[in-house]
Design brief:
With 162 residues, this protein is α/β, with parallel strands linked by helices. The chain has a 7-stranded mixed β-sheet with strand order 3-2-4-1-5-8-9, sandwiched between helices. It has a two-stranded antiparallel sheet with strand order 6-7. A hairpin with a 2-residue loop joins β6 and β7. α4 packs across α5 and α5 runs parallel beside α6. The protein starts with a strand and ends with a helix. The relative contact order is 0.19.
Length: 162
């Protein structure tokens, strides 16, 4: 399987993804799944600027990502699939039984969200999405960088405060 990490991060492409995960895993590509970004050339251009030349970024809607996942998994270099929210990842998991692990890498403060870790804030619908993902047999954990200890979903949901 060429996709090494399935990550939820509301910042999408940024240094922690490109350098923090990209360098240790020697990522060759990122699949950014976001229905809005998939329709916006200027947003795609902005995200491309954050990716080094040796790395490719593919922009997909949920529907096109599900159609292309087998092709990405067949690529020889490792890749990272990046979703900006729990609902997008839930839709991907519900549409593809091949996703076995999901990394919650960053969901930041916004109105209605409660702190769980310094880099994970969740509202009720996001908690429900993550529980639904886990109910499909997918291992869900929070981990901002590869060297950090993963926090299992059960522990993440039991936490309050950062």
């Amino acid at each position: 399987m060429a996709i090494e990490v399935y990550r939820i991060d509301d910042r999408l492409v940024h240094g922690q993804v490109v350098v923090g995960w990209g360098q240790p895993l020697a990522l060759g590509f990122i699949v950014l799944v976001d229905d809005q970004v998939a329709e916006s050339d200027w947003e795609q251009d902005l995200y491309r600027m954050g990716v080094p030349p040796e790395m490719t970024v593919h922009f997909e809607s949920v529907a096109t990502a599900l159609a292309h996942l087998p092709e990405y998994r067949a690529l020889p270099e490792p890749g990272l699939l990046l979703a900006g929210g729990t609902a997008t990842m839930r839709a991907l998991v519900e549409g593809d039984a091949g996703i076995r692990q999901v990394n919650v890498g960053g969901l930041h403060h916004r109105a209605g969200r409660s702190p769980r870790l310094r880099y994970v804030f969740l509202d009720e619908s996001e908690e429900a999405d993550l529980r639904a993902v886990a109910a499909r047999g997918v291992e869900v954990s929070a981990q901002d960088v590869p060297g950090a200890v993963p926090v299992p979903l059960s522990e993440l949901l039991a936490r309050s405060g950062g």
